[in-house]
Amino acid sequence: MPVVNRIADYGPEMTEWRRHLHTIPELGNACHKTAAFVAEKLREFGVDELHEGFATTGMVAIINGQGKGPTIGLRADMDGLPIPEATGVEYASTHEGRMHACGHDGHTTMLLGAARYLAETRNFAGRVALIFQPAEETGGGAEVMVAEGVLDRFEISQVYALHNAPGLDKGGFFTSSGPIMAAVDTFHINIKGSGGHGAMPHQTRDPIVAACGIAQAIQTIVSRNHNTQDDLVVSVTQIHTGTADNVIPDTAYINGTVRTFDTEVQAMVMRRLQQIVAGQAQSYGVEAQLDYDKGYPATINTPNEADFAVSVANDVTGKDHVTAEYGRQMGAEDFSYMLEKRPGAYLFLGQGDTAGLHHPQYNFDDAIAPVGASFFARLVERAQPLGTV
Questions:
Q1: Which residue in 33, 285, 293, 370 has the most C-beta neighbors within 10 A?
Q2: Cα 153 to the center of its chain, rounded Å
Q3: Considering the chain, what is the average pLDDT of its residues?
């Protein structure tokens, strides 16, 4: 493929870009060094417009094609994670306690590679909007950029994104029509009892026993309250209480996550959590407060665009390396906010047998960056071909 070959020429430089970004991981909206590097490269490539300051450090670069036509959006996330790095690579994070443990340095590099090619060739009609987004891991940067009018201001008609995937065939594409990533919610339960001496529990209202009862009862939501044909995860992930072996504390805290695809299932979980917390608190004679935070909605690929993305992936790597019915994944992604407003698709790009995402030994595989960049470039050229608009 001409696209693959041309972008392959950028390979060594793309590796340099990615490894530089790997040394400067930043969190949330505060991707200042990353954004400065991206902006410098985009200006160097000769993009027609560069609009900065979305969601604090996000930006949109516009590249005009030849002739009139719609605007297609391509998105990459830029932020890292608050994880101490343990890769041992020479280009490891220089920001203590932070690392690119999810490959957003690679995603940014892939979109930069596509930007360079598209600005150089302009073998498409209309425009392409390159969306570099902060705060995917926390803060919902995509939601902020949508609220700030990115999709409307630039008249973006459809949007696409890629995410690397450890454990899947290197260089292969994986996606599904319809729901592909779950909605993610968080619950917090604060329990207030009455503490005392561990040898005299009858004089207390023990929040630990209540916390255990609540945590056990929460498990029945999945096992007894939902249809087994609906995907649902409810996990208690934290219980914090107590300070000494002979002291019953006054308070306890429970935290957990809920993953759903259906809003009715989500509503059922919220209702049952409220009932369980109130009922268990009464039975143990304590007070308990539930705070339920709705997070990213489900990531739902629109059928036509998912099929189109699959056909583009087939062009880039061949049908044997493309899985069009990958199925639903229980992870979450804030690209969902963009897909709520525009048709589009989200795909995984395999990077082989490596450490998993959010692991201190994870490292993006530079070999797949030209593959992702080629996918983005071919997507634009095929979605908006010359002479047909």
A1: 370
A2: 24
A3: 97
